[in-house]
Amino acid sequence: MAILDLDHLKRIVGDEPAFLRQVLQIFIRNAPLDMQSLAQATAAEDHEQIAFFAHKLKSACGAIGFNSAYKDFKAVEAMAKELHDVQDIHAKVESLHQQCLGCIVDIEDIMSNL
User: Fold this and answer.
1) CB 75 within 8 A of CB 51
2) How far from chain centre, in Å, is Cα 1?
3) Cβ count within 10 A of residue 30
4) Ordered structural domains, the chain, with CATH
5) pLDDT per residue over 24-73, tens digit each?
6) Is-contact 5 67, C-beta < 8 A?
7) Which pLDDT belongs to residue 65?
8) Are 66 and 35 in contact (CB under 8 A)?
9) CA angle, corner 44, sides to 99 and 82, nearest 5?
10) Which of 21, 36, 80, 89 is spaced 20 to 30 Å from 54 by Cα?
11) CA 5 to each of CA 29, 83, 88, 89, 107: distance values in angstroms, whole numbers, following the listed order
């Protein structure tokens, strides 16, 4: 099963390869920076910033059809808002970091075929 639901993205932005490539490049550029900020917020035990960056990443993942990460970022956002133990949040953030790295590799493959 593909990590990315490209059909979802096409329903939102259309089937124009140049525009699809542009949207995916934005994700590739921003997601690692936002993941780094999320990790820093987790290390600082800053629930407000954890919720902020989890929400931002949830939205980005949802927009491109990265559904598994969307659900996990939604859970992290809820955990932060409910002030769950940061160690529990940290474990999810680490897993999400790996998922995002894998998605970026998939996106690069997709873009080379657009």
Assistant:
1) no
2) 18
3) 13
4) 6-112 (1.20.120)
5) 999 999 999 999 999 999 999 999 999 999 999 999 999 999 999 999 99
6) yes
7) 94
8) no
9) 75
10) 21
11) 19, 32, 28, 26, 11
Query: Quick check: 76 and 56 in contact, CB under 8 A?
Result: no
Distant-in-sequence, close-in-space partners of 70: CB < 8 Å, separation ≥ 6? 58, 61, 62
Report, as an integer, the average pLDDT of 88-107: 95
For 46, the token pair is 């800053």
Rounded CA separation 45/37 (Å):
12
Confidence grade of residue 84 (pLDDT, cut at 50, 70, 90): very high
Q: CA distances (Å), 54 to each of 17, 48, 85, 86, in order?
A: 28, 10, 16, 13
Do 66 and 3 contact (CB within 8 A), yes or no? yes
In single-letter form, the type of residue at position 25 comes to Q
Output the six-digit token pair for 101: 């790295």
AA identity, residue 86: V
